[in-house]
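User: Show me a protein chain along with its predicted structure.
Assistant: Here is one chain, sequence first, then structure tokens.
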Amino acid sequence: MASKSTKETTIMQASRNLQSAPILDGPFPSVSGTMSGSPVLSSYPGDAALPRTSEFPKTPAPEPGTASSGRHRVSRFSSRKVDHAYYWMTVPAVILVCVFLYWPFLQGAFYSLTNSQGYGSWKFIGLKNYGAMFQDARVGHAYLFTVFVAVLVTVFVNFIALFLAVLLDSKIAFKKGFRAIYFIPYILSVLVIGYVFKYIFMVPLPALGQRLGIDWMSTSMLTNPDLAWFPVVFLSIWQGVAYSTLLYLAGLQTIDAEVYEAADIDGANAWQRFWRITFPLIGPFFTINMVLSLKNSLGTFDQVVALTGGGPDSKTETVSYLIFTNGLGNGEYAYQMANAVTFFVVLAVLAFVQLKFFSGREKV
């Protein structure tokens, strides 16, 4: 009992000593000794040379109108401070886009409501061009052919590009050289390559078909109404694979090698590694590739100009080719402006649906 009473007395004495000790205002407390078995805090020897918090000089606020205050002014439209350099970079770009893109589009949309031939006087006729367009069999065939080409090109471009990207990302010899070779078609002019392919489909290929005794290949596909679509699709795929392959390669570089090492430890084979790891992780790249491929193939124009000129018998006319040839050459300016506005709406709807469909299935 005496021991317990002594221990309580010691604790109470130490507590009173701590409460009566002066408050230290130095920033570096240290343990210098003990009092009744408890450590006593004392100020750091260098505290006297250090200024107190209240003694630090305050930076005066910049006066209104000075250089430091004008550099980051509060925006009128938000509470954030905006550097004026951003305005100098973005405003000219916005003006150029509006002048060379949005303003011509609005002009075309207006002229689609007139009977203008692209020159001379015109008269406002409302939606008559749109009504006539939906009853035009030639326009309808152009839309069907464009969609047909777009679906084939989009599917085959992404399938071939993904296969080549996985192959070029593997451990093979001369990898960088192969990447450069496969990218060459994208940097070449479509018109120039189109004329080269036109010669191939008109001379060497029919000669080979005659040697092999293949009837459908013995004559030029470009003059066959049932097969004229094939050269257009083939050239579009050949030229479009390069860029898609580059995007897929960029996506494959973002996958950590440790993921594949873990899959190897778990005993995954090549197909399981691709389907369970590679493909889900490059989901965003697959989405953007599908959108870009569809958009580019729906705008097929150079391939038709170089290979078929829309023939034979208008069988290979795409919407872009029809708008260009008839709108600027056959006096159907306002009529084809209505076609262009309709085509823009179709492209916007398809892009939106495609983004929503594939974005919902991305796993990253």
